[in-house]
């Protein structure tokens, strides 16, 4: 069994919030409690999450993204040069709470971040490997929004100059997490996976952008960040097609992005969604570089519904994946997080833990 991340039994990161946390957030928003009371409720829940993850045998432990409203905006909005406006939004047929639409209005930079302290709390309360998750830098210009609407032209009139400052901000963020003790960091990314979807590619093309050129730019941006990471730090990515209250936004196999994903991006590991037909087959995995120690984490258990998969079915799919990638370069996880937003997916707490325990049990049987 792997002693370094990503582990043979791993997970994407976000976990369902408790009723106590939901109530505390509502009271804080209404002005009924102060921030210290909210933080105390979150601290207690995170300690419970850590204990449960350790109990079921996970070697990587997260804080469940408990302190966030949305997995991506809570990180990006704290960078220098960012502003935001709260607007009502929808996700498929689901209505969201007002969300923060981010905009670049000044020079991007990094001068500290609340999530550094979030990591320190996590690390101080676990004996396992503390894992931190943040959005990929590509998420600032994700294809679902026209980048011209996200970036004030007075701040940046070209993507390449934007990327230079964004990369430097991320390099400083990575170093700040490292200095705080983080050795396992994950960049969550919808941008690439969305462009696996033919309909979204057509949307991008219709507004005057070249999907391939966008992906090439993201690849250079991300690699310029990864090139500066400390040697003893693992940085992985999770490729997501959308995750809000059990809904998803995109579909399509990885073939469209396979050359960039597996041959050029410098990540240490790839968390890939493989819980349904919308992700396509395992054939694109053949492009994983033969040289190097990059691994693929197969997201074979869904976080969208609570029904527990059959263990033999998961083992069979792992075996199918070995047609393209050696078993020693494969890992197992759920397909996504369980609560990418504070609302969480539509399943119960015990169903969440049953799925994570199954990941651990299967990994023990397959790899040990």
UniProtKB/TrEMBL annotation:
<keyword id="KW-0489">Methyltransferase</keyword>
<keyword id="KW-0808">Transferase</keyword>
<dbReference type="InterPro" id="IPR038071">
    <property type="entry name" value="UROD/MetE-like_sf"/>
</dbReference>
<dbReference type="GO" id="GO:0003871">
    <property type="term" value="F:5-methyltetrahydropteroyltriglutamate-homocysteine S-methyltransferase activity"/>
</dbReference>
<dbReference type="InterPro" id="IPR002629">
    <property type="entry name" value="Met_Synth_C/arc"/>
</dbReference>
<dbReference type="GO" id="GO:0009086">
    <property type="term" value="P:methionine biosynthetic process"/>
</dbReference>
<dbReference type="GO" id="GO:0032259">
    <property type="term" value="P:methylation"/>
</dbReference>
<dbReference type="GO" id="GO:0008270">
    <property type="term" value="F:zinc ion binding"/>
</dbReference>
<feature type="domain" description="Cobalamin-independent methionine synthase MetE C-terminal/archaeal">
    <location>
        <begin position="11"/>
        <end position="364"/>
    </location>
</feature>
<dbReference type="Pfam" id="PF01717">
    <property type="entry name" value="Meth_synt_2"/>
</dbReference>
<protein>
    <submittedName>
        <fullName>5-methyltetrahydropteroyltriglutamate--homocysteine S-methyltransferase</fullName>
        <ecNumber>2.1.1.14</ecNumber>
    </submittedName>
</protein>
């Amino acid at each position: 069994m792997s002693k370094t991340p990503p582990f043979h039994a791993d997970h994407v990161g976000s976990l369902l919030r408790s009723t106590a946390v939901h109530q505390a957030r509502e009271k804080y928003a209404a002005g009924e409690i102060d921030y210290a009371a909210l933080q105390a409720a979150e601290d207690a829940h995170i300690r419970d999450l850590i204990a449960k993850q350790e109990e079921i045998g996970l070697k990587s432990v997260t804080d469940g993204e408990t302190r966030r409203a949305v997995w991506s905006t809570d990180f990006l909005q704290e960078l220098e040069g960012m502003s935001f406006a709260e607007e009502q939004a929808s996700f498929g047929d689901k209505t969201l709470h007002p969300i923060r639409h981010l905009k670049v209005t000044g020079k991007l930079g990094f001068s500290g971040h609340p999530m550094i302290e979030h990591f320190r709390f996590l690390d101080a309360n676990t004996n396992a490997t503390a894992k931190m998750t943040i959005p990929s830098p590509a998420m600032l210009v994700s294809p679902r929004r026209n980048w011209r609407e996200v970036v004030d032209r007075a701040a940046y009139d070209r993507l390449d100059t934007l990327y230079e400052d964004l990369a430097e901000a991320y390099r400083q963020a990575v170093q700040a997490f490292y200095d705080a003790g983080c050795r396992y960091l994950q960049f969550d990314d919808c941008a690439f996976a969305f462009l696996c979807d033919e309909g979204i590619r057509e949307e991008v093309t219709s507004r005057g952008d070249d999907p391939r050129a966008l992906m090439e730019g993201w690849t250079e941006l991300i690699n310029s960040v990864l090139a500066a990471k400390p040697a003893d730090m693992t940085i992985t990515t999770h490729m997501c097609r959308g995750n809000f209250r059990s809904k998803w936004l995109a579909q399509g196999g990885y073939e469209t992005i396979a050359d960039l994903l597996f041959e050029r991006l410098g990540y240490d590991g790839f968390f890939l969604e493989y819980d349904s037909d919308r992700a396509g087959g395992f054939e694109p995995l053949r492009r994983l570089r033969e040289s190097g120690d990059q691994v693929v984490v197969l997201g074979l258990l869904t976080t969208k519904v609570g029904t527990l998969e059959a263990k033999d079915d998961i083992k069979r799919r792992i075996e199918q994946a070995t047609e393209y990638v050696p078993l020693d370069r494969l890992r197992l996880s759920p397909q996504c997080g369980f609560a990418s937003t504070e609302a969480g997916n539509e399943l119960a707490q015990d169903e969440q833990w049953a799925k994570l325990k199954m990941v651990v049990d299967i990994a023990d049987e397959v790899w040990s």
